[in-house]
Fold these 2 entries.
Entry 1:
Amino acid sequence: MTTAARRIDSPLHSVADPIDALRVRADFPILETTVHGKPLVYLDNAATSQKPRAVIEAIMRYYQGTNANVHRGVHYLSEAATEDYEGARKIAQQFINAAHSHEIIFVRGTTEGINLVAQTFGRTRIGAGDEILITAMEHHSNIVPWQILCEEKGAKLRVAPINDHGELLLDEYAGLLGPQTKLVAVTHVSNALGTINPLERMVEMAHAHNVPVLVDGAQAVPHMKVDVQALDCDFYTFSGHKVYGPTGIGVLYGKTALLESMPPYQGGGDMISSVTFERTTYNKLPYKFEAGTPDIAGVIGLGAALTYVENLGIENIGAHEHNLLEYATAKLSAISDVRIIGTAKEKASVVSFVIEGVHPHDIGTILDQQGIAIRTGHHCSQPVMERFGIPATARASFAVYNTREEIEALVGGIQKVKEVFA
Ligand SMILES: Cc1ncc(COP(=O)(O)O)c(C=O)c1O
């Protein structure tokens, strides 16, 4: 029982696929792994993506050839490391079309990007009685930092609701924007449902009330072209590890004027211009927000990942994944007792589902025995689970290297689960 088939056109007749997934797979050494004697079928990409050789080798090259601290040395290695580090910043700038490279702040990931904004912009601009507007489909990373801030400041968290397909109710969102709203914080793509939000409209509506918008881009950047200037969002943050890069590194984009007006996030080395015991002055952007020795290898790895994606073409990757999404949606919809959770018209790369009478954890365990990796649980989106009246879902999520054969394997695996629980 599902409404998904109704909402996706011609699911079995997708457009020509611009990606040769078999060739791409050769770039990812881990995909040769066998699990429980079966070839690995990795469908947990929304949690983290696998890494191409280009990324692994870039990190190795740094540690083997140019390892030194950045920004501080005049010696050869330090200059080489700094050049690669700052080169990655330019790559990230171009990747999301930021106007300036100083608008790219390196952080640990999406979670830290959001916390940075909450603790700097939030602590100075949001006070008692003010409101922060989020949506009902946010990841915990885009809920809890705002709750912490609200508690500290006496501010209020407002939540724009979603419909039964997992789509934002835009009119309700519009109705929640008002003079008390000081920030909108919204996910670009829902990790639990796959919904793509109508960001341009949302930003326009918020700006009509002079409200800045922070976008959680963790699940968007790996799948679609993101142009922060076209979106006109004020902050945009994403994680490297979901876009074929290393863990522990991510990007926070912010418009220059906002970043300039914000106090530093953490104090320490590199973020200062001068220090005396009486007074410290802060460094210019982006260094004001990058205290201490950064994750140099991670930044260089992220640069290699974004270059890898650029070379394949993000639109090609998106088209390939969309084909897989349509195929999987049609196949899973056809299995009795499988219900897809999240049937928005605009979706990216995620199929969340439940099987009548089977706990998602059991689905994951039985699939694992067949070498198939999916995620089960609340996906750090407990309010989404509550909205749909379920404790958890099983979630398959696709990347550039996935194939239709892997979806067939998933379908076969689900049949096995059903047999076990028949
Ligand atoms: C939509 C969304 N936001 C935020 C995050 C947090 O990302 P990270 O753990 O890399 O900081 C995730 C991770 O799953 C996510 O899917």
Entry 2:
Amino acid sequence: MELNERADIDAGSVQDARGSGGGGGGIGGLPIGGGGLAGIVITLAIALVGGFFGINSLGGNDSAAPPPANNLEQCANEQQRVQLLECRNALYVTSIQRYWQQQLPESFGEQYKPATTIIFSQRVSTGCGSADSGVGPFYCPADDRVYIDLSFYQVLSKQLGAPGEFAQPYVLAHEYGHHVQDVLGTEAEMRRRQERDPDSANQESVKLELQADCYAGAWANAAANTVDKDGDKIFKSLTETDIQEGIQTAGQIGDDTLQKQGGGQVNPEQFTHGTAEQRQRWFRVGWESGDPKQCDTFKPGVTL
Ligand SMILES: [Zn+2]
């Protein structure tokens, strides 16, 4: 996989909130400070509800100040743009959002609404409450933002056995899959079904997560052809090997894989994201078809 240094990052697609008080400095620098007890409780709840690659719908904290952030000025330099981790991620986000800008109207007749990715360090205050890095990347429907501490990629690589570079755009494309679900109302509908039938909550969550994996696959199918605002290709090369890394990542973060890794028994009742096999298969459905309409994990009778 090679990125095109001439491709431009879309303005506003990614903001860097590291070292701005939302993370390393100020209250955020304390291990569990700042948010007080409520913050701790919310953080724990996110970890339980979200798992890795979560969606965080606990919502309702509109008073949370958006983290002060810069717009990745360091990525203006073409060499740095393809070398620095945050710039590469901003190019991935640009590719993913360009894909949906075109695909959402085509497939679903809806206009895409851009969503900003916030890069944070250690701890961040969001429209869904405060969170720390331990929960992994997540999407917050209340403020339409994706949050990621880039150190998560080291966790993926060193602890979860997914070292491939393509793990990164896969993670981001999965989170933007949740944003698409938010735009389409899929997530809100699911939430209502969970409230009506709490016993179905985990199963509904699995459907939502597998659909986000499938949307990530649909983007992967088209990624090599995505272009920036001037029509420059964002990827110089993207091969089958890269995609296989994405599929490998999907396997490494299956609920069963994570439960085994945690030393515990595999307990399907507690699955919220799907098994390794399911996550890989649904990514593949999106990738092979290139058609997000094939990602209907909520269709009655569908094999998950
Ligand atoms: Zn997810």
